[in-house]
Every structure is written in structure tokens, then in C-alpha cells.
Amino acid sequence: MKIIVCVKQVPDAKDVRLDPKTNTLSRDGVESIMNPFDRHALEAAVVLKEQYGGTVTAITMGPPQAEEVLRDAVSCGADDGVLVSDRAFAGADTWATTYTLAKAVEKLGEFDLIICGKQAIDGDTAQVGPGLAQRLDIPYVAYARKINECVDGTIRLERLMDDGYDEIEMEMPALLTVVKEINEPRVPSLKGKMKAKKMQATVLSAADIGAAPESLGLQGSTTQVVKVFSPQFSAEKCMLTGTVDELVDQLLDKLEELL
Amino acid sequence: MLKIDVDVCIGCGICESTCTFGAIQVEDGVAVVGESCTLCGNCVDACEVGALSIDKVEKKVAADLNDWSGVWVYSEFRDGRVAPVAFELLGAGRKLADQLDVPLSAVLLGSELGDNAENLIAYGADKVYRVDDPALTHFTDDAYANVFEDLVREHKPEIVLAGATAIGRSFIPRLATMLATGLTADCTDLAIRPEDGALLQTRPAFGGNIMATIECPTTRPQMATVRPLVMKPNSRDKSRRGEVVDFTPDPARLKSRVKVLRSVREESEEININEADVLVAGGRGLESEKGFEMVRELAGLLGGATAASRAAVDSGWIPYPHQVGQTGKTVCPKVYIACGISGAVQHMVGMQSSDTIIVLNRDENAPIFDVATYGIVGDVFEILPKLISRLKERRSGEV
Amino acid sequence: MNYFLSEEQQMIVDVAGQITTEKIIPQRAELDEKEEFPTEILQDIAKADLFGLYIPEEYGGFGGGSFDMALALEQFARGCVGIATSFAASALGAYPILISGSEELKQKYMPVIASGEKWAAFGLTEANAGSDASGIQTTAVLEGDEWVLNGTKQWITNAGDAKIYSVIAITDRSKGPRGASMFVVEDGDPGFSYGVKEKKLGIRASSTRELIFKDCRIPKDRLIGRQGTGFFTVMRTLDLSRPGIASLGVGLGQGALDEAVLYAKQRVQFGKPVISFQAVQHILADMAIQLEAARALVYATARHIDSGAKDISKVSSMCKVMATDMAMKVTTDAVQVLAGHGYMREYPVEKMMRDAKILQIYEGTNQIQRNVIGQALNKEYSRS
User: Fold this and answer.
1) I need a labelling partner for C160 at 20 to 30 A (CA). Which of B59, B69, C10, C19 fits?
2) Other Cβ atoms within 10 Å of C146 Cβ, number
3) If you average pLDDT over residues B133-145, what whole number do you get?
4) Number of domains in chain A
5) How close does chain C come to B288, measured CA to CA in Å?
């Protein structure tokens, strides 16, 4: 099986803090990590490779330092990595991103499956997976929670719904986005880390993928940021005071009124 | 592109401190822009010497925007009923449609739809585009997106809203790609810009640490998804009148490359936290699974459900379905009692619209007090046990 | 502090550290509570290629030495000494084969141990042979093409979960120190069974059982090395494994120090975090000093061993004594810093203190270690 995994390097969102005085993101000591959902996607791909044989290629669109996530991917079982990088890609929204990724995937030749994480923790839109499938004109399932089998060019899996799950069957080539429930991602292996150290990622520029400039980056985006601000929270903020007993009584009185 | 006039730039660094994305820095006395720039323009406004400007590249406008008119809401139908989020979106959509002075329409896809179309009208729709076909019984991305695309191309709505549910998040991005238009996910606010009637879509980014307002300037329709419980539905008005338009799709468009073999409903043991009137939530301040038990007990006594911050879920004290926040659920109960939760922005965006928020935390500077209706600065290990025992006393006294 | 690790050594620290953070720490309390063997975690360690860390490349291992093992063990012990011991004990069981075994034996057993497919264990201790290893009474008699073993080994780590056992038995009592030999016994060999699982003060996730040999018959080729070299192999094995135990002490000390400092920073009494008080600062300072000193000695010893030095007994014993005595003190101090909370099972330090004790006892008690060091000093200074 030839499997492609889309990965993204993101700042560890839980550590990104907003400085309330300057209204800026403090990125001090914030690590860049592989998007956690992508680790699940990679694990799913590597498990399939171990089961059915084949190769796993990790692909990422990002600045030059995004090569680190490709190395992380190889250290956890991917066979090689492709970095799609060009200044022209900067500022891309999901529309421009899916265009760029689709052009890059076309360069990689035939494949059986593309696996993505359900969303990236910085953008949180969960749009790239479905959009990419549409561009490539392949069927897809979002929110895969279990892969049952891949036989005779067909994949059988379970899709997470809000109230349970659906059992799905579709023909490959196809795309999946996965949720955390699907597996426990493995930790890198020593051999994997050494392979990652030696690895040379294939780097594709805009020209390499034959991308039309007007479709790239900020220019190729259909959405645009109008403004950015810190979240405003406002509330009455009525502070209760007193001894523990008094506080408890006041609180219970209020609850009685409300419920 | 952000243009920096190096002759005018004095290297003062105001742009660097204003940039929310860390995209511009002063190097060797002049400002230099990096790859994270989103052209939001904050630095342009902040620069006191006017050294910064943004070249608005004239984009080819994809369509005559005036041809597109109307606000549409996708009314998710599953398991014999319309999802509650659809009514919430009709509430939000109604406001937008009234501001633009255009009709509000609902799109209803499924099979055996009964009188659900009429119900959508009662909740605010002027028109319902109804597609009732056995091929749509089970949700499949391609059939649903195909049919929706055909409807959009025929009727040209300027705005399409959908709920950010498992179904919505699955096929709406595909639909947006098919229509070559922009989509903003998980919006917390929707508004119309008076000057040109454009839809302003506000959503959290970086786990909720910042809010971004986004527009879709050159393509139509402008598409947005909204999480359940963020918007409020209007009340049901039986007297409302509207039009139901039945649409028969081309059979070729109903074919799906994805086969649903079966749909399994899973009952969860506890009340869905989205449906509880009272939520008692615990965070890191409870310190352990045992501490967390107090939260559960209080929730039980108040007839509500237990919720948690991500810290509590990650510590293994309570499973993920109870998590409230950016990566968990958005809730909006009558009463939300936050115990030992500091109030990371990622958590607050998930519960800030609750009717009454009661905060219990020992740190008076905890950010969560910013959203509190009532706040208590104190030790959860003193207050919660007292609260529980007093509540039991009062109850037994009443009987 | 910069420990001057090579790139590969840093990779070992990163991989082992990630396993500790993501897999060991979240499960340690439960495994300790339930006295459950950490099968899944050992499988994760195997998948990360760490089981073969010390095994030569030609047998499918990484070809690393003492220092590489020390780095991995330190990371695992930071999480849980019970789990780290299960990993370390497999190496202990493999060392005899590596040190003295024939090429055939190495080809047979090293690859499956390196891949983590099967775990190993070391069978020396008996009811009458603890510190006095020469008191062993298990016998092995050659009958035709088979060795027949009789006797009981006591308190064997990984017993019951391991599949490969390096066992020492008396082959000729008249020959005294040259009268014992080592053998490989496999799970399933006829006449070989396990005793009941022991209940312990600490390292409760680790399996400790008796090995029972009742006319246990094994093929002739299971002899490790030449007949009569048993005690030599045992001594050589323990020389190599002691820095590993010392590393467990260092890792445990680090884990305890981390918990103590973090707690002291956030526990408020008298209006201030308790770390502001000199009394607490001094305890933490002494913990940190001893931890770093122990680490330095362990690293130096490991590097010395890896350089191919012949005489390693003294330094090997020294680092074991120092690091394990340090771990006992540091974990006890950690409980003290956490005070009431430290005594509660909800906090990890009481387990750390319970786990520390065994480090001063197994693989040669610290009293025996001091004998070794004393005798070595005597010999050293006699040369002039």
C-alpha cells in the first residue's frame, strides 16, 4: 500500500499565551510540535504498513523549519518526507492550502490512501482534509475512529458521529481524517531517530509543483483576516465575602433562586 | 504583501510589539517581515511614522457579487429529527437576513422528512429547499455536497451557514471547495458590515487565545460553520408563513462513493453535558481524582452533570466527553459552577455564554473571575465539603 | 548542566524520556497499586528499539555500552523504578550469555531479547544464598545429553513473565569456587515452574517469584561457557549491571527532586510559597547536590567501563552505593518536603520512597559493596 500522511508543524497551543498588556502572543519557550492529531494519522498509516506492507510518505506544507516534523514522522515509522515550501505559500488559508497540497500530491504519483488528522490545533478549522479530497476527486471519510480492513482496493472503517458511529466502506484511492480515539501513537524508536537524522526530505517549491501563482498564499486565499483582537470577557463579577459558612449559605440561596 | 519603507522606518519596534503573530521584527535597525504575516494590518495602524503599508492586490473577483442574494441555513437532519443547531442558526440567520433585507432559507436534506420543513418555517425560515430522497437516508459527504452544490449554483445565496457538527464539519469544507469559495469554521460571532453588506465572521484561533474576524471578499457564497449552543434560536412561531420548495436532484448526483453499511447509536451513561441545566466543572485545583469526587457529588445533588477543564481530563480524573473548551464541548447551561479552574482562554470560550457562572478558586487573580457572575475566593477543599453537607441539610430540612 | 552527550546518546535520552512522560508516569500509580506487570509499557520500550541497547549489532541490537544503558535507565526510573527494574532485569538475564555464552547460544537468544519479543531474568539468589552467593544449593547433574537441575531460586525479578532464565547451579561441590556453572533455562522446560508472586514494600509493578527446579531437564548445549565458570560469569555480570542500578537511583532521585521543588513552589503557608523558607531551601539544596554528585560518579563509571577498562569492580560498587544511598535520602526528604501530602498515596513521593529501599539491597547489598571496595583498596595500595 502507498500511504501519504499530511502533517503540520504547529506551536504547542496550550502554551501560547496572550500578553494582556501588549495584546500580543507570547511565544517564549513555546515549542513547535507535530500537530497532535497528525500523530494519530501517522500511527494509523504505520500500522497499515505493518499489516499490509507498503510505504508511508509524510508531507507537509510550511516554512523550511517544518522539515523537523518530517523527521519526527520518519522516527515514528514513515519511510520518507516531502516538504512543500515556498515564500509564495505564506498566508495561505485552507483554500490555497488544499490547492497547494493537491498539486504536490499529484507530483507523488499513485497512492492508495491519504490520512490526515482531523484538525490542526492552531487553525482549528478541520477543513484541509475534506478540501484536499475534493481537489483530488477522491472519496473521503472524516472523523475515522477505527480502520477495520483494507482488502481488494476497498477500505472498511468506522466514522465517529455525534451520537455513535457509522460503519463505512469505500474504494481506494481515498482520504481519511482521524480522531484521537483511533489509536495510541507510538513513541519514536531509536532506529527511527537514526534514520530520521540521515534523511533528506524532498523539497518542492511552487515551480516544482506547477502551481499557478495567483492561486497561492494570501493572494490565492478566499478568506482574509479583517482584524485580530484579544477575547473580551465581561461579566458582573459580584464577589461574595464572608466566612466559609456565610459563603456557603449565600451561594445556596442564589442557587435556590436560579434553579 | 506588507511593504516596509526602509527609508522611513526608524526601527522603534512598535510594530514588533503590536504583531499578534510575531511576524515582524526589527533587525539591524529596520523592520523585517517573516512568513507568519496574515496581512491583518495591526502594525500598519500602529506605526507612527507611516513606514508600513499593505498592497492590496486587486484580486480577480470571481463572480458578480450582486447576483448572489439570500441567507441559507443547512438544517441537519438525522435520526428522524432536525438537529437543534439548525434552529440556533435560523435565529442567527434571521438577524443577518433582516439586516440585509433578504430572505432566510433553510436547506433540508434527507428522507421521510415529514413536517420538518414547516417546523423550520416556524423557527424563522422564509423558505425551505427540501430534498426528500431515500438515497439521502444516511449521511454521505458526496451525495449531500453534490445536491447542496446544485441548489447553490441554481439559487445563488450570498451566505450559507451550517452547524459545526460531525456531519457539518465533514461535508461543508468539501462543499466550499466545490464552490471555490471561502469557509470559516467554528464562528462565535456573525455580523454584517453596513458599508457593503459583507459577512464578518469571528472565530477563535491559537486555541482561543486570540479572536480573528474574517471576511470572504471576492467569492460567493460566504460560508461559515458555527458550533452548537453558541447562537440562540428564536422562539417557535406557529403563525409564521413560508414557502416549501421541493427539489428533485439529478440521480447521478445522488451516487456516493462511500457506502454506509450501518449506523450505530451509542448511549452514554451520563447526561450529555450539552443538555444539562446545571454543570459543575472541576479543574486542576481539585488536585486528584479523589478531590474531583466532590465535583461529581455536588453535580449529582443539584441534578446536573459533571464537566471538566482539559487539565482534569488529561489527568485522567474524568473522561473526555465531559471536557469543556476549545478542544472539548461548548456548553451553555443555566448555571455553570467552576471549581478549581483557573480560566485558560481555551476553557472560557467553551462556557462563557452560560447564563450564570459561579466561580470558586483560591487565586483572586485567576482569569476565570472575568466571566463570573458570582465569585468566591477560597479553598475548594473547605468550601465544597461544606456546600455539599449544607445542601443535604437543607434538603432534608425541606422534607 | 552539559553532560557532553553525543547525538546518539541524546536520542536515547529523548526516546526513553518520551516513553517515561507519555506512558510510564500516567500508569505508574495504578500498576503499583494493582501489583501488575507492565507488559504494555515493555512492549512500547521494545518498539522503540531500546531492549537491544546493550546487545551487539550482529545480534540485532544497538551495540551500545554501559553509558547508553545508564541514560535509558535513568529516564525510566524518573518515572517508575518498578517498571525500570523490569527492563533492567532483562538485561541482567542476558549479560551472562553475552559474557560467557557460545556463539550458538548468542545467536539463539540475543536477537529475541534485543527485539523485546522475549524477556530474560537472572537466577542466583536462594534462601541460603543472599549476600553469601557461594551458599547456593541448586544442583545440575549431567545425565547423557541433558542437564538435570534441582533446587529453588528465591526472589527472582521478572520470574513468570520472562521466557529466558540465566541460572547458576552447583556442578561439582568439591571444586569450591570453580564448582558452579550457568545455564539457560526456558519457560516451558520440563520440571521448571514458578512460585507464587511475592508481596513487596515497593517496586510492586515488578514481578518477584521463586524459580522451582524439580528434575528439570534441559539440553546439554544450554550450558553457558565452560563448566565451572559460573561464579566468574556472575561476578562479571554484576560488575556490568551495577552502574545500571546506580542509574535507577539517579533517575529516582531526579523524579523525587522534581516533585519536591514543584510542590514547594506552589504550596502556600504563612502567606508564602514554602520554597521561600530557608529550612525548605536547605533540604532541597542538599537533595540537588547529592543527586548531581551521584550522577557525575555514575556517568564517569559508565564511561570508564565503556573505555574497555579491565578493573571495574571497585568503581562499579562505588557508584552503586553512592547513588542508591542518595536515592533513599532524597526520596525520604521529598516526602518530608511534601509533608502531609507526601504521606498520601495520591502524591507520587511515598511510592518513590518505598521504591528506593530495594536499590540499597539487591544486586549486592550496600554492605557487601563496601566490602568489595575495601578489599579493592587494600589490593590497590599493596602494589607499591
Assistant:
1) C19
2) 15
3) 90
4) 1
5) 7
